[in-house]
Amino acid sequence: MSLIVDCFRRLTDISSCKSELKGYKVTDVNRTRKIGIACRNFQDLKQKACSKLNVTNDPTEVNVFLLDGSLIDEEYFHTLEPQTTLILQKPGEKVLSDADILYEALRRVNIDFLTAGDRVTQFLTENLKGKVALLNKVLNKDDSKTALSTREEHPEWFENLETNCITKEAYMHRRCQDRIRTYLYKTIEQIKCSDVFMNDYKARQQLLHTIAFFKLQLKQDHYFGYYFDRSRAESDTKSDNDETDYDRCYEHCPCNFGRIDDETYLHQRYLRLPQSSDTNSIANSDKIDETDARKCLASEKNAKTANDDSESYFYRVKLREKQIAICNKKGEFKCEGRWNTDGCPYGDRHKINPYKSKEDLVLFSTWNLDHKIERSRTLIPKLLQISRQDTINEEDIYDCYDNLFTVKNLRLVHIVCHDKGSHK
Questions:
Q1: CB contact at 8 A, 353 and 404
Q2: Model pTM?
């Protein structure tokens, strides 16, 4: 009997056997241990990491983060380079990014000596925003290497960065994509935890289609990675010739992922239909090229001819002419001020160039892409309300997308100007 069971197990695991074995480094939220994991897929990683880190929770309850605090999912996992360090988070734990740890380390350095005076004690225990502002003033002001781009030209900028990007521009493009992905993941999580999604069948189908559209449109828009990419900045003078190649992209971008057929794509991603028996398609499902959105949506819309139910309606993916960086050609970013103000009152005191040095790059991670109209308090509740309507105006869905993911509603702000309170 054991021989039969073993044969059955090998047959059912054929797709995972065909996956390439890759190695990653995994640690816990306290960074107390770092272990090596060899795995074939995202679930395999979580199971092995839980076992080696003595995590007793169900692996499905455990989240995985990058060192910069970005939450990753199964699809994004397949874009990571081998030997990337990942953080395993159990329910209820808080993940600290590298920037958080940097400021905590600053607070603890020579703590006995530094806390000799009451004013210094207060400085080290209160007002994190003020500390960041002070750090910004004392950073290395040498900008002789700012214009350098490649790893060979400026190796210290890339030191300890777990990336295969060979230019600063490619790395910053990826970092911006990670921020936008985080907004997508949080949006999906809030939608699926809502009473509307769980209890209203028609609204749930509409929300699933909306999520599908968000993912497809974001792939088409390259997750707006060019917001942080100075090679996409507009020229300071109108007389300069714009020689930017807006069709060029980086290897890590989803537009370069492999493709599978439309039917397999829809089955596995959104329509929850029985999956294909083609194990090769399933094994490659996490490398879907969702940028071919028009083709996928055309396949989806064909279903409407056989079923006139409103849940068969899908949204058209829009093509954008070009994407423009929110920094200048040198890579300098300026704070845009609080959500309810016109500009930043601190002027040039709130500007930063992460292309200048490793220290500036770390500090830039504390700058926030802030929603003027709040995502969790306003945009998602509005989307849930729209989903319950009998007739959905697609312009409302497009408007939600723009407010969630584009600079129509996002502004880059210094930590001092980031208002975490209610935006009313």
A1: no
A2: 0.63
